[in-house]
Every structure is written in structure tokens, then in C-alpha cells.
Amino acid sequence: MKVPYRVILSNPIYCLAFGFGSGFSPKAPGTFGTLTAIPFYLILTNFPAWIYAFLVGVAFFVGVWVCGKTSRCLGVKDHSGIVWDEFVGYWITMFLAPVGWIWMLLGFCLFRMLDILKPWPIKYIDKNVKGGLGIMLDDVLAGIMAALFIQAAVILTG
Fold first, then answer.
1. pLDDT greater than 90 at residue 10
2. Whole-angstrom distance, CA of residue 124 vs CA of residue 118
3. Helix H segments across 19-130?
4. What is the pTM of this model?
5. Of 64, 74, 81, 128, which one has the greatest count of Cβ atoms within 10 A?
6. What is the DSSP letter of 45?
7. For 113-148, b where at least 16 C-beta lie within 10 A, e where not — what string?
8. CA dihedral of residues 24, 25, 30, 33 (deg, nearest 10)
9. What is the per-residue pLDDT across 82-135, written as a single tens digit (0 to 9) for each?
10. What are the Cα distances from residue 134, in Å, to 98, 102, 155?
11. Any idea where the domains of the chain sit in the sequence?
């Protein structure tokens, strides 16, 4: 479903769900949404871990509501332009990761790969959990899996 840009950008709920417009990309909106999450991640790295985790938790719960409402209003189960879930998934990926471009790139690649390929249990959640929770939860799982890979790489390169 084609949604006029002005409708999305004029509604704060849709605007957030569409990643401040990054979800409008005609090709790979999830990738562009993840790229748009990086500057926000750079801000999050300035906070202690507990505040980072709290803010990402808030972003998750807000995302369940915002993505669910946007999806219902657009009449589409999981509109490809809804990318707030990619924001949260990437932030989870990068939680407690070392700061640096190589880690951000590794996190980006791991998260996108897991989000696209959807190995078990991500695929199961994607197919069986509906609404805003379903939209958010598969990306949360991809973020957790990617974060575990990053932490393993940190230990191995230690």
C-alpha cells in the first residue's frame, strides 16, 4: 500500500513507525531504517548501561504500540515501511558492544543478516505472533542473537 509522505510525516505515530521517513526507501527500507538508527545509537553510547537498557526497553514498548497502531491504520500486517523495529533491534545488537566503527559495522551486518534470513526462532515469531508485538519481537530476537555474536567476538579477540 502506497502511503503519501505527507500523511506519514504529519502524524507523529506514523512518523516514528516509519523511522522518521527512512522507511520510505523504495529498496531495502529495513536496511535504511537500521542505518538511520546508528546516529541514535551513538547518542545512547554516552549513557551508562542501565540507562541505555531502560531507554531501549521504553523504545520497545512504545514500538509495540506505534507499529501496531500504524499497521492497523494502514490495513497491512507488517508494512515494509515500518522500520521502528529495526531501530530497536539494532540498539539491542549494540548493547554493551565496544564503541568503534568496526563494531558498529559488524553489528549492522549481523543484525541485517539475521533479520533478513530469519533463522529459528525468529521465523517462528515472525509467522505466529501478530500485531505490534509480532512486528517488534522478531527484530528483538535478531538483535539478541546478533548481540550474542558480538559478545563472543569480543571474548575471542579479547
1. no
2. 9
3. 29-44, 49-74, 84-93, 101-117, 122-128
4. 0.95
5. 81
6. T
7. ebbeebeeebeebbeeeebbbbbbbbbbbbbbbbbe
8. -70
9. 999 999 999 999 999 999 999 999 999 999 999 999 999 999 999 999 999 999
10. 29, 31, 32
11. 5-157
